[in-house]
Amino acid sequence: MDATQWDERYRASAGGVWAAEPPAVVREIVSACRPGTAIDVATGDGRTAVWLAARGWSCTGIDFSAAGLALAAARPGGDAVTWIHADVHEWEPSASVDLVVSCYLHLPDSAAAVARIGEWVAPGGTLVVIGHDIENIAAGGHGPSDPAILYTPDLLHGALDDRFRIERCGRITRTAADAELRGGHGSAAIDTLLHAVRVR
């Protein structure tokens, strides 16, 4: 989907598309980090960025959907986040940050995109990426059905160079209790998670 299609989806939604909080595993990883500066990549309607700001992070949320960002800014706590309307392929932060989070950014060049956002992480900082795994199609989970844009552990692991220490990279299964959509969904979903720390 391009920016226009995402704008249409967000405008058709009643208050937002995604769940109120980021995935449980993202909350778990980030809660162990000391708050600092953060970028939420493909923030959508802002759930992760607002959650980070509420926990003391100085957060920027970037997305190419103006309609999604309008919903994000209108969330309770949305005024604590800096919202940027831009494409991840083109935008650059003015300085590296302590945390970069990307939840469900699926692109034909996903590995290159992950490598690019990894450049935004300061030495000692953390990168967290989660997205639908290719095995999610056969499992019948919610999400894209095009294997060309889905994740695998090898794809995410291979996106980073030796400046990063991989803390965790593998498949996880989310239950319906940790739904991606605002209205929930009834089946489990298979995701790929990457958690890495930049060492230099």
UniProtKB/TrEMBL annotation:
InterPro entries with a match to the protein in the record: Methyltransf_25 (IPR041698), SAM-dependent_MTases_sf (IPR029063)
Gene Ontology annotations of biological process type: methylation
Superkingdom as given in the UniProt entry: Bacteria
UniProt keyword list: Methyltransferase, Transferase
GO molecular function terms attached to this record: methyltransferase activity
Statement: the UniProt record of this protein carries the keyword Methyltransferase: yes
The Methyltransferase domain, residue ranges: 39-125
Protein name listed in UniProt: SAM-dependent methyltransferase
CDD domains in the cross-refs: AdoMet_MTases
Organism: Microbacterium trichothecenolyticum (Aureobacterium trichothecenolyticum)
